Automatic annotation (TrEMBL):
The active site is at D89 (proton donor/acceptor), K152 (schiff-base intermediate with acetaldehyde), K182 (proton donor/acceptor). It is found in: Cytoplasm. InterPro entries: Aldolase_TIM (IPR013785), DeoC (IPR011343), DeoC/FbaB/LacD_aldolase (IPR002915), DeoC_typeI (IPR028581). The gene is deoC. It comes from the Bacteria. This is Deoxyribose-phosphate aldolase. Catalyzes a reversible aldol reaction between acetaldehyde and D-glyceraldehyde 3-phosphate to generate 2-deoxy-D-ribose 5-phosphate. The keyword Heme does not apply. The lineage of its organism: Bacteria, Bacillati, Actinomycetota, Actinomycetes, Micrococcales. PANTHER family: DEOXYRIBOSE-PHOSPHATE ALDOLASE (PTHR10889). It catalyses: 2-deoxy-D-ribose 5-phosphate = D-glyceraldehyde 3-phosphate + acetaldehyde. Belongs to the DeoC/FbaB aldolase family. DeoC type 1 subfamily. It comes from Brachybacterium vulturis. GO terms for cellular component: cytoplasm. It holds the Pfam family DeoC.
């Protein structure tokens, strides 16, 4: 890949494989593709750790529902970091957010942050499509108070939908330049990926990275 724009976009991508039917061979293929494309990282299920690659390794915890205790999420995050994960994308308890229990949201994020310490990067998946604007702002503020490094739109598995330009822009407005914003879920074309970056995304979660970088359409996460 020689196009400068391609390289710049690839450097924002977490090349993602979180399908429950994924095999070790699928993950190996993902790693090699990420290295070839020059993506920032791969994002894989915690059961696939550890892996060997020249790119960063991200994983998930509390995935995909977020309906796990803070202690369970913390255990999962600690184990993943011990197995070599550079980054952890945790799913917050969306029910707590919808109920306005933002202190509880902050508590569970802090529980993960306490075990996934810097230099590990912590991203908080807020499922923005399932929240009101007011709730999006409040959970982003809770994530910042708890010491998260990024807020992230979506798991890509919620029936309410994935990333939207509106949500990304609101998240960026809320956290300013203090946290990163990751757009993920339903980004299937290069046009959509570039629109998310224009809205304020500093990282992209994509499963069809090659197709998107080549200007085509992908499918999946």
């Amino acid at each position: 890949m020689t196009n400068t724009d391609d390289r710049a976009l690839a450097a924002l991508i977490d090349h993602t494989l979180l399908k429950p039917e994924a095999t070790a061979a699928d993950v190996t293929a993902l790693l090699r593709e990420a290295e070839e494309l020059g993506t920032y990282s791969v994002c894989i299920s915690p059961s696939m750790l550890p892996v060997e690659t020249t790119v960063k390794v991200a994983t998930v915890c509390g995935f995909p529902s977020g309906q796990h205790s803070p202690e369970t999420k913390a255990f999962e995050a600690r184990e993943s970091v011990d197995k070599g994960a550079d980054e952890v994308d945790m799913v917050l308890n969306v029910g707590l957010a919808r109920a306005g229990e933002y202190d509880a949201v902050e508590h569970e994020i802090r529980a993960v942050r306490d075990v996934a310490k810097a230099p590990a990067v912590l991203k908080v998946i807020i499922e923005s499509a399932a929240l009101t604007d007011e709730q999006i702002v409040a959970v982003c503020q809770a994530a910042e108070r708890a010491g998260a490094d990024f807020v992230k739109t979506s798991t890509g598995f919620h029936p309410a939908g994935g990333a939207s330009e509106h949500a990304v822009a609101l998240m960026r407005k809320t956290v300013g330049d203090r946290l990163g914003v990751k757009a993920s879920g339903g980004i299937r074309t290069r046009e959509a990926a570039e629109a998310m970056v224009a809205a304020g995304a500093s990282r992209l979660g994509l499963s069809s990275s090659r197709a998107i970088l080549e200007g085509g359409a992908g499918s999946g996460y």
